[in-house]
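notes to self, project folder thing:

trying the whole complex as one job this time. last attempt i did each chain seperately and stitching them together was a nightmare. two parts in total, labels are on each line so i dont mix them up again. if this works i'll redo the older ones the same way
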Amino acid sequence: MSVIYDRVALIGLGLIAGSMAHAMRRAGLAREIVGTARSPETRRIAAEIGLCDRIVETAAEAAHGADLVVLCVPVGAMAEVAAEIAPVLEPGATVTDVGSVKRDVIAQVGPHLPEGVHFVPGHPLAGTEHSGPRSGFAELFDNRYVLLTPDPDTDRGAVDRLRRLWEGCGANVEEMDADHHDLVLAVTSHTPHLIAYTMVGVADDLRRVTDSEVIKYSAAGFRDFTRIAASDPTMWRDVFLTNKDATLEILGRFTEELFALQRAIRRGDGEHLHAYFTRTRAIRRGIIEAGQDTDAPDFGRTKPPRRREDAAE
Amino acid sequence: MSVIYDRVALIGLGLIAGSMAHAMRRAGLAREIVGTARSPETRRIAAEIGLCDRIVETAAEAAHGADLVVLCVPVGAMAEVAAEIAPVLEPGATVTDVGSVKRDVIAQVGPHLPEGVHFVPGHPLAGTEHSGPRSGFAELFDNRYVLLTPDPDTDRGAVDRLRRLWEGCGANVEEMDADHHDLVLAVTSHTPHLIAYTMVGVADDLRRVTDSEVIKYSAAGFRDFTRIAASDPTMWRDVFLTNKDATLEILGRFTEELFALQRAIRRGDGEHLHAYFTRTRAIRRGIIEAGQDTDAPDFGRTKPPRRREDAAE
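result (full assembly):
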């Protein structure tokens, strides 16, 4: 693998930026990685663990002289960072981001960028429930998707160069329209997160079911919800505030379906329930076939007899 | 480990019964394991893979002479099986079940059992989204909970004996009241399953978001829902029909909370969202500390740098 950018600036040093740093180093994709974060504590930890080649104090300092600037801050902070780095960006540089919402980020960042700077919005569909500078790891993007949502007028060379960077980090890269991205993600990520947060909150509220019981007996279903609901609160607040329309639309459909199932339960309509549950099973099969998950029992957490992951190692 | 029952009859040969057979053999807990299933195909496969010592054609035949009969059929089929085996049960034998709902199973099974037969309802909180006679594995119950809900009048010796069997299968055993069980499970399992089924159904319905996109881009959140929503349709239909009241109560609270969050999104109330998401994060920490999940990034699916599971092996 060869160097794709001379200097990459990572603005914000959480899970995604940290994993990008590890992945770029693994493949030798950047000659120099400069990082910054607003919090002095984050910068201190990043410096201590050698996450980047240089840690600097401000976004402007990091972006200065970079040929790729990656905005890895919560979606609500994109405009501010874009305004701060705009004066130091050089013509020919590329700015991208890793935000979970694309139309709003484009509206926030686009207007600030000077002529000659390429803006290629991006979204890596990868993550864990962990955050902070220590949470990253090089394999996070392996075989995951990265969606790029450039305007059709964007310089083709700049888009392809960023695509090669992500491919070098192990990802599959696809391009789509920003509005379509926001709708797809409302279905596959944003609404599921809101629902998981809600269910965990309900459990927390119930006084008759003590905390320790909810936690002890979480193996069957609830556990997966808590993992989702442990994700970074600031990031997710911003996602819902900035992808409001698509999320509310999908939520509307969700409650409509939920009420139909609730009515089936109340009426004892077993046929309706069975047909519904049979249909949803097929989608799971598709996901395993698409390579986006393993079918090892219980995700391999309980040491099943044969493990696909092990077999592949 | 020493033999706890001379002859264990497994009625129904799906994931739980299959895993019990493997786990009992691993620890030498039963002198003989007799199995049966309604479907000839299931019996054929079970015989082919040697799942039990003997495979017989009917539940009555399996229960005949057994000192432990385990009902591993969907909750809706419990009454029928109980009626069938009642005439052959011998005084001193124990009958248990593995159903996800306890009050309804007690109502279905209890009246059929003759005097002198001990009934100790049970529920192992373990599972995967797979089903059928090939899906079982010995480690399924390791460090998982099994809840027993015997009537206070039940023979203490019979309860303790069954407890030792489950402990020999690797599980932690606790006892509780059947009604309380049904409420706890409505929170930790039944309602989460219904919600996951609903969300997957919504995604399937959306024509603007093609199937392949939903599947390809499922990594962030939706994937965990599809796993839950791939569980056995018959089992889950019966769960909702038989734990109707508790499920509807928790669903009511869920929609109440969901509407509050929906309103916060519509109004742009970031403070409400952030506070809610911060609160739910703490529950996740509790689950990891309780040993009911790993905090390895992405469940270890992507080979992170350090893995707790590996370290423990």
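what i see at first glance: Chain B touches chain A through 114 residues (CB under 8 Å).
need to look closer tmrw
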